[in-house]
Specification:
Elements: H1 2-8, E1 14-18, H2 30-46, E2 52-53, H3 57-70, E3 76-77, H4 83-89, E4 94-99, H5 101-105, H6 107-116, E5 121-126, H7 130-135, H8 142-157, E6 162-165, H9 174-180, E7 186-188, H10 191-204, E8 215-219, H11 223-233, E9 240-242
Parallel strand pairs: 1-8, 2-3, 4-5, 4-6, 6-7, 8-9
Helix pairs in contact: 1-10, 2-3
Length: 245
């Protein structure tokens, strides 16, 4: 997601906070997730953020409505699984969804299915443990491969030809999924669309930046651990600051 935003908005300075000490959110209660959203948003606003991207489907489902009440004048970009484009793309009429348990159980996801997937069959697959492996930089390990294979094989057996990556971490394992899936299975995520939407909202409010951009990274977990995997996930080295909230 952050790489998509940088590509779409190269002049915008970015603040990224990984709530590594509290993820995965998928197994947490909505109340817990809302509290994390409040704490993180307050910190980012204090650091000068002019817009917030809730780069997590589970956090969007639990907390984005409250954030918009707290910051009514700020552009707040929400995330949701790409059900609509997947329903439009499928040829077999069967769409698979890889996501966290929290996302799949949310009312927001149920509403997406009711609105956009009435004419297709949607098969959901929770992926416990995948977020942790991605945050550890294990994007192509044998263990990660085995986990993904165990999740996608039943979907393929039921005719799935379109697969939604329903967590913002999951595009990092797209290369591995392409090795495991037939070439005609389409992978869909929302990263590029969210980046474009952010650009449109900033432009509407005359908030687009120009000039040189900076990036600052924070982690509520071990900053050294995040710094070690940043070259894999971000593409370059960077200092990571500790977020004690």
């Amino acid at each position: 997601m952050l790489r998509e935003i940088r590509q779409c908005l190269p002049h915008e300075s970015l603040l990224y906070l990984a709530d590594s000490a509290h993820v995965p959110y998928g197994e947490k209660s909505p109340e817990y997730i809302r509290e994390r959203c409040r704490v993180i948003a307050a910190f980012l606003v204090e650091q000068g953020a002019k817009a917030l991207v809730v780069a997590c489907n589970t956090a969007t489902a639990a907390g984005v409505a409250e954030l918009r009440q707290c910051y009514p004048l700020m552009p707040i970009i929400a995330m949701e699984p790409a059900v609509k484009p997947a329903a439009q793309a499928t040829r077999s009429g069967v769409v698979g969804v890889l996501a966290t348990t929290g996302t799949l159980k949310s009312a927001r996801f149920a509403a997406l299915l009711d609105r956009f997937a009435a004419d297709v069959r949607v098969i959901t697959q929770p992926c416990p443990g995948l977020v942790e492996r991605i945050e550890a930089g294990e994007l192509g390990s044998a263990e990660t491969r085995a986990m993904l294979l165990g999740w996608v094989e039943p979907l393929l057996a039921q005719g799935c030809d379109t697969l939604i990556l329903g967590c913002t971490h999951y595009p990092f394992v797209r290369p591995l999924l392409k090795q495991l899936l037939p070439s005609d299975v389409r992978l869909i995520d929302t990263g590029a669309a969210v980046a474009r939407h952010l650009k449109e909202m900033l432009a509407e409010r005359h908030l687009l930046a120009s000039g040189e951009a900076t990036q600052r990274f924070y982690s509520s977990g071990d900053p050294r651990r995040m710094a070690r995997v940043l070259p894999i996930l971000w593409g370059e080295n960077a200092e990571v600051e500790f977020f004690p909230g």
